[in-house]
From TrEMBL:
Presence of the UniProt keyword Ion transport in the record: yes
Gene Ontology molecular-function annotations: voltage-gated chloride channel activity
Localization (cell): Membrane
GO BP terms: regulation of photosynthesis, light reaction
Membrane topology: Multi-pass membrane protein
Pfam families: Bestrophin_2
Chain intervals for the UniProt region annotation (Disordered): 1-26, 376-405
InterPro entries recorded: VCCN1/2, YneE/VCCN1/2-like
Source organism: Artemisia annua (Sweet wormwood)
Record key words, sorted: Ion transport, Membrane, Transmembrane, Transmembrane helix, Transport
Name of the protein described by the UniProt record: Bestrophin
One cellular-component annotation, GO: membrane
Biased composition (Polar residues): 1-12, 382-405
Length: 405
């Protein structure tokens, strides 16, 4: 018994070993507590607050839903007063507001260079300080290169925007066609038919939430799916593909002919193609070296622009730098914004329109069918020349007979 007690005490003391981990973890807490104290310089915090403010405005407005244009919007879009309206709304543009940090920075550099050259020319500074000036010939040679670089950058971004728009046009058309096929093919099981149609309506919503940052899928699908279906979709890693699985497995339960089943299942390829194209656009940007080259070219151009223009413009280099930075960086900013097309497209409005159209088809299906049956019965009971009711087939044979001719 005496020999068992020490071993039992050792076994009790060996499991609780959190002390070395606690001693290792405390320095991390101390280091992390010291990190926010280092960047407390007022100048650095003020300079950092300007781009943070501009980025916050841009990201907030990127999350706003984009409307689909109607006839009244096109009339306003092409009106002759659009230039004045666009000019007055410049301060509310997210593109212009996001350019405030670089434009202010380069305009401040131009003002500093102009002040320095003026102080040297007036003799305020010693003679050892040279006037910052240079020939404009290098800028005349590189200006076409900068223009082509900006044009190619914007064109590449617009091609991605157009590709994303075409991908979503295919998704919308595929969803509408698939819903029409289900409404026309499935006749017996109304409960399962309605469930499949709800899954079809939920697919573009799930794809939109899969592509748009910080989207609330539970809120958007709350009115379309039941609670158990919504729980399955939310628990999956890839929500659009989960809805495709729900559609596919629901169609297996339908009592359909094999040919109709094959036709319906072939419509799911459009969904898979839409997912793959959209994910490629989302995951593969324009080559980063191309974007970095454009940004570096613009920065070096505007840092040296006041030195190039000093001999000809003097203090006019300040407004000239402001205008050049505002215009050229605006073109580059538009290219960066439309490079991610799904934030710029009216995806929410497209999803709402698709769901409304499918819901309208579901509601009007029975009314249209009853109306067509009544028309068919009325056409089959047209009166003959002697007053007796005849069918449509008998009337056609009479009109085509030689005696009637």
């Amino acid at each position: 018994m005496s020999t068992l007690k020490p071993s039992f005490q050792i076994n009790i003391q060996t499991p609780p070993k959190p002390k070395p981990t606690q001693t290792k973890f405390t320095p991390k807490i101390l280091c992390s507590s010291h990190t926010p104290k280092t960047p407390e310089k007022p100048v650095i915090s003020f300079l950092r607050s300007i781009p943070d403010w501009a980025d916050n405005i841009k990201e907030t407005r990127m999350k706003l839903s984009k409307p689909l244009y109607k006839h009244q919007d096109w009339v306003r879009h092409r009106s002759s007063t659009r230039h004045l309206r666009h000019l007055l709304s410049s301060l509310s543009s997210r593109v212009i507001l996001s350019l405030i940090p670089p434009v202010i920075a380069f305009t401040s550099v131009a003002g500093f260079i102009a002040s320095y050259n003026t102080a040297v020319l007036w003799g305020v500074l010693p003679e050892c300080f040279p006037v910052l000036r240079a020939s404009s010939l290098p800028y005349q040679l590189t200006a076409p290169a900068l223009a082509l670089l900006l044009v190619f950058r914007t064109e590449a971004s617009y091609s991605r925007f157009e590709e994303g728009r075409k991908a979503w046009s295919g998704v919308v058309a595929g969803v509408s066609d698939f819903a029409r096929q289900v409404i026309g093919s499935v006749e017996e099981d109304e409960v399962l038919k309605e469930g499949i149609l709800r899954y079809i309506m939920a697919f573009p919503v799930a794809l939109k939430c899969h592509l748009v940052y910080e989207s609330d899928l539970g809120r958007d699908l709350g009115d379309l799916l039941e609670d158990d279906d919504l729980a399955i979709v939310l628990s999956s890693n890839h929500r659009p593909r989960c809805i495709i699985q729900l559609i596919s497995q629901s169609m297996q339960l339908l009592d359909l002919e094999e040919q109709k089943r094959i036709v319906l299942e072939s419509k799911l390829t459009c969904f898979h193609q839409g997912i793959s194209v959209c994910e490629q656009i989302m995951g593969i940007p324009i080559p980063l070296s191309y974007t970095r080259l454009t940004s570096r070219f613009l920065v070096l151009w505007h840092l040296t622009l006041p030195i190039i223009l000093w001999d000809e413009c003097n203090w006019i280099v300040v407004p000239a730098t402001f205008v050049s930075a505002a215009s050229l960086f605006c073109i580059e900013e538009v290219g960066v914004l439309i490079e991610e097309p799904f934030q710029m497209l009216a995806l929410e409005e497209l999803c709402i329109r698709v769901c409304d159209n499918i819901q309208e088809e579901m509601n009007s299906e029975k009314k249209i069918l009853e109306t067509l049956i009544k028309k068919k019965e009325a056409a089959s009971r047209k009166p003959s020349q002697n007053g007796h009711l005849t069918s449509a087939g008998e009337q056609n044979t009479r009109t085509n007979s030689p005696s009637s001719r």
